[in-house]
Design brief:
Number of helices: 4
Helix content: 25-40%
CATH class: Alpha Beta
Shape: elongated
Radius of gyration: 27 Å
Structural class: alpha+beta
Mean pLDDT: 79
Largest sheet: 4 strands, antiparallel
Oligomer: single chain
CATH architecture: 2-Layer Sandwich
Number of domains: 1
Distance between the termini: 86 Å
Low-confidence stretches: none
């Protein structure tokens, strides 16, 4: 009668013991947990960075209004202060059609209220006015709103949940639809292309 040696299968080949398999599964679980925690930390840092970006721009806009009594871009006396600037029409809103929206960033820069360090990460001054916009009554918000485009859906939802009500249709942080004036009539998407997040200033 053939006896089996410990650690060998019936055919004499090496095999894994139950303890070895358990150790492997524990290691895999630990690695997976570490990866998931790392992803959560990255997501949290992105949300925090987005909040800092918005706070810096909101502070710059507020500072401009306190100093010059007009919104940046809408200021009808900007050219008197800075010859390279263009005047706005002073009607109390920043209008896209008249170029005030893009000029707003120039006014903030010339007033030294917006520095390269306060520009959202990964964007330049040329991007402001396209990816980052100051919009009147965006998504049904009262007054001026700061809108940031191409935000990953989960990051946008996390930002709203942390700093507002988590509902993209209500509150001071909203999900912008195709029309600047209307919020989407649905909650934050969880996947797909980047979305536009608007925050009341």
């Amino acid at each position: 009668m053939k006896s089996m040696q410990p650690g060998l299968g019936a055919d004499g080949a090496d095999g894994f013991t139950l303890i070895e398999l358990s150790v492997v599964l524990i290691i895999v679980a630990l690695l997976l947990g570490t990866v998931l925690r790392a992803e959560k930390v990255v997501d949290e840092s992105r949300i925090q960075r987005m909040a800092l970006d918005q706070a810096a721009i909101a502070s710059a806009v507020g500072g401009y209004v306190r100093l010059y009594h007009f919104f940046p871009g809408d200021d009808p006396q900007a050219k008197q202060r800075w010859p390279e600037a263009m005047d706005g029409n002073g009607d109390g809103s920043i209008q896209f059609a008249t170029g005030e929206e893009r000029q707003a960033w120039t006014h903030l820069r010339l007033a030294r209220l917006l520095s390269p360090t306060s520009i959202p990460q990964g964007r330049s001054l040329q991007d402001l006015g396209t990816d980052v916009r100051l919009v009147q009554h965006a998504a049904g918000l009262p007054g001026m709103a700061l809108c940031m485009a191409n935000i990953p859906p989960l990051q946008a939802a996390g930002f709203d949940l942390r700093f507002d009500d988590g509902e993209g249709r209500h509150g001071r942080i909203r999900h912008l639809g195709k029309d600047d004036a209307d919020p989407l009539l649905q909650p934050w998407p969880v996947e797909g292309a980047g979305v536009t997040v608007c925050t009341a200033l």
